[in-house]
Design brief:
It is built from twelve helices and eight strands. It is of the alpha/beta class.
């Protein structure tokens, strides 16, 4: 695939000097779902090699791995992907996703028309079901995974939003306490905020959420230490080609300054440009033009984080998906696995540690 010779480079088509990208590592997140094995690492390992992508993000979907409280989680598929990625020399991040319904009151959320797996349990202490789940993840992948992200998009995916800040602060405390007991525990990451603006009963603007979470953590006297990194998603920055202080990444970094005592690095653990958003933003209708614009935006974002002021303190940029999702069309490849122009733009950036 990479041997096709296709070159899609923005800003005059000039390649990125390797030294300029030394502070920014690249990752691709595989999806938590997908058809068959299309989102497994073993299915995508050639794509990681061809694009010289040194990090992979995998998912630990609690209700799928442990649907029954009486049985331990089934980590067999995740074990295989972690082992294969490590044998290929990749660094591995695992994102803990959703909640087992048996741990959060079962059908309570489902009865109100919401998915019960996104309902946050009342008890998030180290001795709770969630605490034991995170302990199982940290213990199993200590020395095997490089990072564990403890939650995903709490300000958008999870409910109820009215108590979400308190819940995420408790989750961060619990994860840090559990990791402190485990030798070789991976780096922890959170809160993985969705970069949404505006508020409603179902969502909280990322800047409001981050500000309130930082205040709650300060009130609790939480000290994350050097092994807990702040994570954030930045689709809007890419899709709207936002630069400088306008970007959500720069706004988050400004909020963290002097208030977050964890790792100084920001991990952008989901990024990308959805084709429908690109078409709408730039008034495009031709399918080829939309995909070319997607490639340009992705590379432009990478360049800004490598060269621009908003990249200061950003250690990792993780693109969401090789094989795309029809419901979230940000992938570097089409549904049949065919590379899009963005695949080649991504692959021409240098290998990063």
């Amino acid at each position: 695939m990479a041997g096709s010779g296709v070159r899609v480079l923005a800003q005059g088509g000039q390649p990125v000097p390797p030294a300029a990208m030394q502070r920014l590592a690249r990752a691709v997140s595989l999806g938590p779902g997908g058809v068959g094995d299309e989102q497994r690492y073993v299915t995508n390992r050639d794509r990681f090699a061809e694009t010289a992508t040194p990090w992979v993000k995998l998912w630990a979907d609690w209700p799928r791995l442990q649907p029954d409280a009486s049985r331990p989680p089934d980590f067999s598929a995740l074990d295989a992907d972690v082992s294969a990625a490590r044998s290929d020399g990749l660094k591995v991040m695992i994102t803990a996703w959703r909640f087992a319904p048996w741990a959060n009151g079962g059908g309570r959320a489902g009865a109100s028309g919401q998915d019960a797996t996104f309902e946050v349990p009342d008890d998030l202490s180290p001795s709770s079901a969630w605490g034991r789940w995170i302990d199982a993840l940290i213990g199993r992948y200590a020395g095997k995974a490089d990072a564990i992200e403890i939650v995903n998009e709490p300000n958008l995916q999870l409910s109820p939003q009215t108590r979400m800040v308190t819940a995420i602060a408790q989750m961060m405390e619990t994860a840090a306490a559990v990791a402190a007991r485990r030798a070789g525990a991976p780096l922890l990451a959170g809160p993985a905020t969705a970069d949404v603006d505006g508020g409603s009963p179902q969502r909280t603007s990322f800047d409001v959420f981050a500000r309130e979470l930082l205040a709650e953590l300060s009130r609790r006297g939480f000290d994350p230490g050097a092994r807990f990194a702040w994570s954030h998603h930045n689709y809007g920055d890419v899709e709207n080609d936002l630069a400088g202080d306008q970007s959500s990444v720069a706004r988050v970094r400004a909020m963290l300054t002097g208030r977050w005592r964890g790792s100084p690095d920001i991990l952008v653990t989901e990024s990308g440009a959805r084709l429908d958003k690109v078409a709408e933003r730039f008034g495009l209708r031709d399918a080829t033009a939309i995909k070319l614009k997607q490639a340009e935006l992705i590379e432009s974002s990478l360049r800004r984080l490598a060269f621009g002021p908003e990249g200061a303190g950003v250690a990792l940029l993780c693109h969401y998906l090789f094989i795309t999702d029809p419901n979230y069309d940000s992938g570097l490849c089409d549904l049949d696995g065919s590379p899009r122009p963005a695949y080649y733009a991504w692959s021409q950036l240098p290998t990063l540690a």
